[in-house]
Design a protein that fits this description.
Mean pLDDT: 87
Low-confidence stretches: 1-10, 21-27
Number of helices: 7
Largest sheet: 5 strands, parallel
Helix content: 40-55%
Radius of gyration: 17 Å
Number of strands: 5
Strand order of the largest sheet: 2-1-3-5-4
């Protein structure tokens, strides 16, 4: 007896790419992450909440708080915090980081200026999944003014559960970016 793959939700015929995608979806992680979290004044409340969640998560080996501090929320801009966290990723001091500002956009732009770092804004589960499985992003950015607190917590938790598979079809796509980046530096 041969099993027939389920049809695509859009009614089109399945392709080899669909099968690769389904295999990638099962790539969940069992390692413990070295993390950092940071925000500007517009993301401070969520940063404190996410920081507490990360400290309690058994998948997290360590977590560094890069600010801004509660008692001095205007002590650093999103650019300063985003670059500082991304430099830690690039130096191998941490595996991943979470950055929060008003929209997540400024933090992503800042972190992406650091060579070797891939940061993305993600406000839904599918984007969080693909940020790792398709793009090997080390930094997740969120917007406190865009999503609610429970969704932010859920997305970070989901994000920790994925690990990039270097044998996946996405590896060559990520390598194109890495090669360009090395050439441009």
């Amino acid at each position: 007896m041969t099993s027939t793959p389920l049809p695509r939700a859009d009614g089109r015929e399945r392709t080899a790419h669909d099968d690769d995608f389904e295999k990638e979806k099962t790539t969940m992680v069992s390692k413990r992450w070295r993390m950092a979290v940071g925000s500007d004044d517009a993301g401070l409340d969520y940063k404190e909440m996410i920081l507490a969640d990360l400290r309690a998560d058994e998948r997290v080996e360590s977590v560094v708080d890069l600010g801004v501090p509660v008692d001095d929320p205007e002590s650093a801009t999103y650019g300063e915090v985003g670059i500082r966290l991304a430099e830690m990723v690039a130096a191998g001091e941490i595996d991943r980081g979470v950055l929060i500002c008003g929209t997540g956009i400024g933090m992503a732009i800042s972190a992406n200026k650091v060579p070797g770092v891939r940061a993305t804004v993600a406000h839904d589960s599918f984007s969080v999944e693909r940020s790792i499985l398709s793009n090997n992003c080390q930094v997740l950015t969120l917007g406190q003014r865009v999503i609610g607190p429970e969704l932010a917590r859920r997305l970070v938790s989901e994000w920790l559960g994925y690990e990039f598979d270097s044998s996946s079809p996405s590896n060559e796509k990520v390598s194109v970016i890495t090669r360009y980046e090395k050439r441009a530096c």
